[in-house]
């Protein structure tokens, strides 16, 4: 007769396998957790990138996923490895779900890379989507020379110089005016791009200007200092191998407003109070996501970035555009539109939540009415700051389009494509 106790007795092998199974399952869930940490936010950001009107998620998606899709493709691949390992260790359902999320995130990143690459090729410039898998901050370069070009309340206002890679006696000059909502930012924030332009044959100069504070609005001061910088550059370019008769201007965001206003005003002999009354004219001007209209900028309805926009404008003007319409008109680039305006390139990001593109489109329309035809390039699935990675396709497009445009108007042409 069989012993009932013997039937319930576990073998040493069975008892040993339980801890091993428990350890495998624990490790599987640990890997699945790591995968979820990578993949769930990535997928949410991908949704925001393709649905930019979604409150908050649209801001984050276009601001992150659509800006560095190459990095999110890499994250999706890493996350899928965690998920696959979790499945192998027994976390089957959740692991397979994570693999599906990884696939969605991977495909989303590839689609954005393809769309941006096609936009570049359609615009006639060469971009390399493989570069987008690298990351390089725009502040990762150093100028060759830093000088003082003026003073404000006893403080030195600096200008950075990036010398051409080749020793040229008459290099064209490119002046870059930085952005930052007129209350932040500095002359070195686009240093990697400025070095790139210098390596492509330009003497690049990037001046600072006085930023606004709650105690001091700079709606007139900043524009005057930019005019002063152009006058200083015209008088000193030859000392550093530059040709002041071939001067080009570039700016981003608030810097786009400053550089367009200056370049358009200069061509109508409006010196905007330049130093010593000198007026330096430019051959062509480019502006990336320019904040040309303080009214539409201030009226930004975005639930996340609208408040930020209103702070920028009201601090710059010393109040709202309604309170100070004369100040708003003074800083608006539309004020200086004329038939004598220089050739202009306007680059817009379709999903710009910070600076609504309607203001820039109206600027272009009024320029057409005045007999000028600014060139406009609109990049879809891109946020206001979508060029903060030097290697991003969006930043490649901006650089290549700018140097190509300058080439067409007397700049360097041997590397314009």
- The CATH architecture of the largest domain comes to 3-Layer(aba) Sandwich
Strand tally, please?
8
Uncertain ranges: none
Largest sheet, if any?
8 strands, mixed
Helix content: 40-55%
Number of helices: 13
Main sheet: strand order: 1-2-4-3-5-6-7-8
Q: CATH H-level name of the largest domain... which superfamily?
A: Alpha/Beta hydrolase fold, catalytic domain
Strand residue content? 5-15%
Q: Which of globular, elongated, flat, extended, rod-shaped describes the shape?
A: elongated
In the CATH scheme, what's the topology name of the largest domain? Rossmann fold
Number of domains: 2
What oligomeric state do these chains adopt?
A: single chain
Account of the protein in words:
This protein is an alpha/beta fold and 417 residues long. The chain folds into 2 domains: 14-122, no CATH class; 145-408, Alpha/Beta hydrolase fold, catalytic domain (Rossmann fold, 3-Layer(aba) Sandwich). It is built from 13 helices and 8 strands. Strands 1-2-4-3-5-6-7-8 form an 8-stranded mixed β-sheet, with helices on both faces. A hairpin with a 2-residue loop joins β1 and β2 (155-162). α2 packs across α3 (57-65), α2 packs antiparallel against α4 and α2 runs parallel beside α5 (92-122). The longest helix has 39 residues, at 12-50. The protein starts with a helix and ends in a 9-residue tail after the last helix. The model has no long low-confidence stretch (mean pLDDT 92).
């Amino acid at each position: 007769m069989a012993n009932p106790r013997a039937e319930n007795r576990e073998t040493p092998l069975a008892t040993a396998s339980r801890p091993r199974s428990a350890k495998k399952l624990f490790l599987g869930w640990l890997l699945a957790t790591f995968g979820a940490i990578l993949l769930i936010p990535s997928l949410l950001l991908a949704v925001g990138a393709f649905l930019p009107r979604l409150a908050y998620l649209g801001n984050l998606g276009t601001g992150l996923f659509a800006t560095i899709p190459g990095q999110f493709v890499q994250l999706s691949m890493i996350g899928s490895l965690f998920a696959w390992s979790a499945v192998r260790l027994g976390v089957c359902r959740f692991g397979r779900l994570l693999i599906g999320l990884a696939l969605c995130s991977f495909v989303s990143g590839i689609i954005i890379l393809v769309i941006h690459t096609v936009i570049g090729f359609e615009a006639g410039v060469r971009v390399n989507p493989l570069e987008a898998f690298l990351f390089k901050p725009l502040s990762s370069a150093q100028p060759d020379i830093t000088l003082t070009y003026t003073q404000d309340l006893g403080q030195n206002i600096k200008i950075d110089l990036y010398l051409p890679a080749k020793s040229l006696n008459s290099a064209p000059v490119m002046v870059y005016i930085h952005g930052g909502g007129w209350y932040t930012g500095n002359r070195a924030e686009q240093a990697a791009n400025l070095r790139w332009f210098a390596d492509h044959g330009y003497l690049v100069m990037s001046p600072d200007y006085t930023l606004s504070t709650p105690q001091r609005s700079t709606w007139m001061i900043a524009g005057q200092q930019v005019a002063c910088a152009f006058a200083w550059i015209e008088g000193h370019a030859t000392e550093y191998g530059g040709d002041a008769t071939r001067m080009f201007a570039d700016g981003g965001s608030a810097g786009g407003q400053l550089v367009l206003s200056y370049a358009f005003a200069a061509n109508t002999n409006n010196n905007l109070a330049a130093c010593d009354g000198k007026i330096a004219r430019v051959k062509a001007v480019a502006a990336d996501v320019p904040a040309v209209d303080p009214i539409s900028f201030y009226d930004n309805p975005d639930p996340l970035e609208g408040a930020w926009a209103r702070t920028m404008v009201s601090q710059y003007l010393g109040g709202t555009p309604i309170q100070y319409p004369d100040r708003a008109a003074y800083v608006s680039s539309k004020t200086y539109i004329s038939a004598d305006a220089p050739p202009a390139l306007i680059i817009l990001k379709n999903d710009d939540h910070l600076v609504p593109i309607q203001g820039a489109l109206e600027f272009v329309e009024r320029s057409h009415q005045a007999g000028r035809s600014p060139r406009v390039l609109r990049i879809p699935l891109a946020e206001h700051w979508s060029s903060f990675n030097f290697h991003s396709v969006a930043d490649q497009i901006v650089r290549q389009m700018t140097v190509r445009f300058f080439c067409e108007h007397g700049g360097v042409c041997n590397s314009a494509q």
